[in-house]
Amino acid sequence: MTDLASSEQITPQGNSAFGFIRKHMREYGILLALIAIMAFFQVVTGGILLKPVNLTNLILQNSYIVIMAIGMLLVIVSGHIDLSVGSVLGFVGALAAVMIVNWEVNYLVTAVVCLAVGAAIGAAQGYWVAYFKIPSFIVTLAGMLVFKGLTLWLLAGQSIGPFPRQFQLIASGFIPDLFGAGGINLFSLVLGLIVAGVLLYLAVRTRLHQQKTGIVDEPFAFFVAKNTIIALAIVYMSYLMATFRGLPNVFIIMALLISVYTFIAGRTTIGRRIYAIGGNEKAAKLSGINTERLTFLTFANMGMLAALAGLVFAARLNTATPKAGLAFELDVIAAVFIGGASMSGGVGTIVGAVVGAFIMGVMNNGMSILGVGIDWQQVIKGLVLLAAVIFDVYNKNKAA
Fold first, then answer.
1. Comparing 84-88, 302-306, 387-391, which segment has the lowest mean pLDDT?
2. Phi/psi at 248 (5° precision)
3. Worst-scoring range by mean pLDDT, 88-92, 290-294, 375-379?
4. Are 120 and 303 in contact (CB under 8 A)?
5. Tens digits of per-residue pLDDT, 172-208?
6. Which residue has the higher pLDDT, 19 or 338?
7. Cβ(89)–Cβ(326) below 8 Å
8. What's the pLDDT at 7?
9. Of 327, 336, 321, 274, which Cα lies nearest the Cα of 300?
10. Is 320 helix (H, G, I), strand (E, B) or coil?
């Protein structure tokens, strides 16, 4: 750590933690907001919010929103929007129910087919947006109506279920304790420790690389405090869930998706080009980027993730219903904007979208515990979304 602190080349803006926070308010403000909201509900609910059983339910209840928010972030960053994700989720869940329950198709084969169908749906919508320049709002609004209708047709207005136990484990299963400690899922705790250690290692390695190139602008004390808090939070959350039943299977799916898409968005050529399209599509095209193909791929990816969320949601409910996915697109889009994405595209992070989804989830969960009616829950969520957009516009005008 001494080497980290001694040989840094810090820009003038980074000489103070306050200046750094002001410069990176979009990235860190949302994380501070999540911490503040969790602390508030932990106090007013008398400690119920962070009880192991409630924490596990919080993750399970928001898993499908998080999964879709990851794909939606890339769509919005590229300068578009997808209003059909809730309907696609419901349609894929209905397709899975028909295949598994009515046709008795193996659940693994069904999952592969459903993911392919979701990708095909996204690709079909992306084709019109990318190559015919039809506004994504119109194309996906049409898709929302089409797949709502197809879900009703496929289910014939009836709910279909239950699913086999193996399929339900996607959303309701937990990682077994390979160590067999008893009383606490020791394997889940060890897994949390490993994840915290890996994140610390990657953070230090990234900072050392930044020092070599002279682009470090984060104060050393802030770097240490931030990463220590993140590591301790991961270990503490892992411990809480380990004392209940361990880490849910869907939590591992989410963690893998967040890791993969964070790497794609921040460390690959494709990711940088998607941001370039959202920043200025004409300039991106003139620089040699195949904007049509990338737009097409972002929608295909969104369709696939919506299908995965549909499988998770159906497995959690243990049935497919005609109303599945109703208004989910609004929660997903709200999560992405609350997480710091810009309405005009080109700005946003995967982690920010996930944090935004959990802010929505914590608010829903906390207000439900307090007995706040669904009417006021909607009002409060709407005001939070409006505040996030106002904050984005304010920052943009200030920068200009």
1. 387-391
2. -65, 150
3. 375-379
4. yes
5. 889 888 877 667 888 889 999 998 998 899 888 888 8
6. 338
7. no
8. 44
9. 274
10. strand
Instruction: Tell the residue number behind the tokens 């972030």, with chain if given.
Output: 73
Q: Which is nearest to 142 in space by CA: 81, 84, 91?
A: 84
Only one residue has tokens 């209003």, namely 83
The widest CA-to-CA distance across the chain, in whole angstroms, is 68
Of the candidates 314, 334, 341, the residue with the CA atom closest to the CA atom of residue 83: 334
User: Using CA atoms, how far apart are residues 292 and 189, in angstroms rounded to an integer?
Assistant: 45
User: Do you know the residue count of the chain?
Assistant: 400
Lookup: tokens for 191: 């897994």
pLDDT score, position 81 = 95
Specify the DSSP element, H or E, that contains 269: helix 269-279
Q: Are 86 and 342 in contact (CB under 8 A)?
A: no
Per-residue tokens: 231: 């590591």
CA atoms within 13 A on the CB side of 292: 7
